Amino acid sequence: MSARTIWKGSIQASILNIPIKLYGAINSSNGVHFNQLCPDCKGKIKQSIGCPTCNKTLSRDQVLHGYPIAKDQFVVMSEEEIDSAHKEKIEAIPILNFIENGEVNPVYNDEPYFIIPEKAGYDLFQLFRQSLVETNKNALGKIIMRSKEHLISISPFPDSNILIGYSLHFQEDLKTLQDIPDSDFPQKAIDPEMLKLGKQLIVNLAGKWQPEQYKDEYKEIIMKQIEAKAQGIIIPVEPKKEVQKIASMMEALKQAVSATAQAQATA
What we know:
The structure is a single chain. This protein is α+β, with helices and mostly antiparallel strands. Among the domains are: 5-27 and 85-172, Beta Barrel (Ku70, Chain: A, Domain 2); 192-237 and 245-266, no CATH class. Helix content is 24%, strand content 29%. The protein has helices spanning 79-83, 122-135, 192-204, 217-230, 249-266, and strands at residues 5-13, 16-24, 49-51, 56-58, 65-70, 73-77, 92-100, 109-117, 137-145, 148-156, 163-168. The strands form three sheets. A seven-stranded mixed β-barrel has the order 1-2-8-11-10-9-7. Strands 3-4 form a two-stranded antiparallel sheet. α3 packs parallel to α5 (249-266).
């Protein structure tokens, strides 16, 4: 099935206007999805919206948007009031500035999108892309999608003529380390011999990034079970393996280095 365009507009860099379209880069239908069923009739359950106070079911067009200001107190906002918060309705990505490639910490990355030029913008698109390549820069802009404003980082997609865009979280959307319990733990001196073994373990498992060699093993196993069960065959569920207990960290490192060295020698 062909990918569907999820956004059309343009990249605006000063007076340059480059018409583009965005496609989602993630195949969200590729996982294993289960329906919720009734335990008695095995029929598919329909989820409804209910009010526990009025004890009644509501349709989606009856639901209001409320922002909490105190316990059980809300400011009700209409769809029109929410939509009016968007400063601009134009379908464009204004470029705010250009940053070094790799400068954005991956924690800010959200969704990836393939960015493709419209036919009328091929020449400008290629000029823009090649300029990013030769200056080793990413373009940073803003985009409104699904009624929400996002930052977006735009860079050349490797081994292609297109661009890749990542919608980015705003700083205020991220938790700080102060929000994470026990993140400020003391730094201890590391035994040189253990550090040597730790580095050797990394060397033994080192390799090149080849994404095609990694598979969703859970999906493969669960689909085999589903296909077998559909034919009346029950595959026995194997008990979970217990984690092997090792006397010390040094012994664990030695065993790990030895095991990976053997695997490397037989590969």
